[in-house]
Amino acid sequence: MTGDVIALESVYAAAERVAGRLHRTPMVEAETLNERFGGRFTLKAELFQKTGSYKVRGILNKVLTLTADERARGVITLSAGNAAGSLAWAARAAGIPATVVMPAGAVPAKVEAARAYGAEVVLAEGDLLAAYEGLRDERDLTAVHPFDDPEVIAGAGTVGLELVADRPDLDTVLVPIGGGGLISGVSLVIKRLLPSARVIGIEPIGADVVSRSLASGIPEKLPTARSVADGLAAPMCGVHTLAHIQQYVDEVVRVSEESLVEATRLVMSRTKLALEPAAAAPFAALLEGAITLRPGALTACVISGGNLDVTTVLTS
Amino acid sequence: MTGDVIALESVYAAAERVAGRLHRTPMVEAETLNERFGGRFTLKAELFQKTGSYKVRGILNKVLTLTADERARGVITLSAGNAAGSLAWAARAAGIPATVVMPAGAVPAKVEAARAYGAEVVLAEGDLLAAYEGLRDERDLTAVHPFDDPEVIAGAGTVGLELVADRPDLDTVLVPIGGGGLISGVSLVIKRLLPSARVIGIEPIGADVVSRSLASGIPEKLPTARSVADGLAAPMCGVHTLAHIQQYVDEVVRVSEESLVEATRLVMSRTKLALEPAAAAPFAALLEGAITLRPGALTACVISGGNLDVTTVLTS
């Protein structure tokens, strides 16, 4: 099974479909990061997006393309967090019931957010994917994959459209990678509209399913995927996402847990953005010296979300 | 000894003096806080100010009004943190040497920031005020009080000018109180320009020197002033700040440490702003039910700074 890449027109259609329902997030300049890393950075602040993450772009787009019958059956997804909150929010907006399967160890605030938006949350102790597939089939629910779906990828691509519109001078885009949905949409748009720009993805060493899939050429699964960047701990790569990453992404870099923690604190202290560790992945790679910046060139980093576990803040 | 209130013209002069050197910070809307507290809130995002705090407004204004002789002697201040970083930054901008006396328990990032901006940091184990006065006299340095100075208050007042310009429909302004510099400048401006608006201050129970000073009618000192909101743990009220607060502030509310921690986490999770606990004080008061909002009215909260101790983030 191989996936086809989506058409740029699908991203334009997604942008039109979600317009007015989501925020057009700002680009944030960060002089102190420029000094620290010797580059020129601009941050796409998706942590200010509805539900606190870019994820809602793709999920809402998908929900809005469902047929009346698919909606009537109710929707289900599996997620460590941000897709759960996004589906709960999008389903509520569409007036349909949502079920989300989350790992038992998910960040409590993400579980609460999904519940607060009205979803039924099912916490899975063991195999997340098996729990999700079982429930989906048993209840005949409409599956909304958290990333491996053309409409979800098209929605994520709207981040790329805004990047290009706001900073057509960008040279490099750094994108966190979980299952690859965000970078699939963004890289497609960047390579079509700004072909000379680089797109580099970053994933945790402990959840490096995309690197493994690129090496083997097929979408891999991981028995366990763990990271402090819970938003990046996808246990599988997608058919569709692998196809996009193979075609459009220049490089995928793996980062350590230590770098992710340090990067989160660094970016938070310098920018005053309460980003989640997934969103700091580009700076983890920079801390490790894994990315070479082109002198004077503009680097855009997608700050993918801000659903941080705040119960750790001010503990001592 | 009593202090006179400053003239509104001093605030306009400060605004002109610092223009172009500091950020005009944005107002941030926060729909989820509106839902949580049943009000209409707008946040003055001073955490995005240069040095990460409103404090630099007053300190820079003061430094820019010093005589050539006062500058040549070098400047000194005492601070739990934000005035230290602000003076270090402003002195560097003015090309003069700075010394800052900080408590030994200051947030490490605040100490590092002062050093990074080029100041000599002296950590005081015991009486902060005594250490500061001793060093000031011994070295014949020019004193820059962190809050109890007409020019520092005038600089803080520029926050009020921007509030009025951006949201002339505001009904209530909630302002964190340490030694009272911020609320002195802001309340003066609000009461002169929008006389029907309320100004309410919030200070920690463990550092309630302004409440005590209002009760006694003279500027009090505290043997110890401790709070998780380190930015509010001033051990003394000022002569000038007390005069402004007596004349212009409607009410001062005291909040618990527990509420400050809860409010910091709540506001961070809802707004994705990495605010420091001092800045969350208005929401601590709201959590305690200590402030009654007028139905439908707009409440502005000054998010005074973002120099959070990020080493606590992602610990578990």
Automatic annotation (TrEMBL), chains A, B:
Its cofactor is pyridoxal 5'-phosphate. It comes from the Bacteria. Residues 23-305 form the Tryptophan synthase beta chain-like PALP domain. Pfam families: PALP. Keywords: Lyase, Pyridoxal phosphate. PANTHER family: L-THREONINE DEHYDRATASE CATABOLIC TDCB, THREONINE DEHYDRATASE, MITOCHONDRIAL-RELATED. This is Threonine/serine dehydratase. It comes from Kribbella deserti.
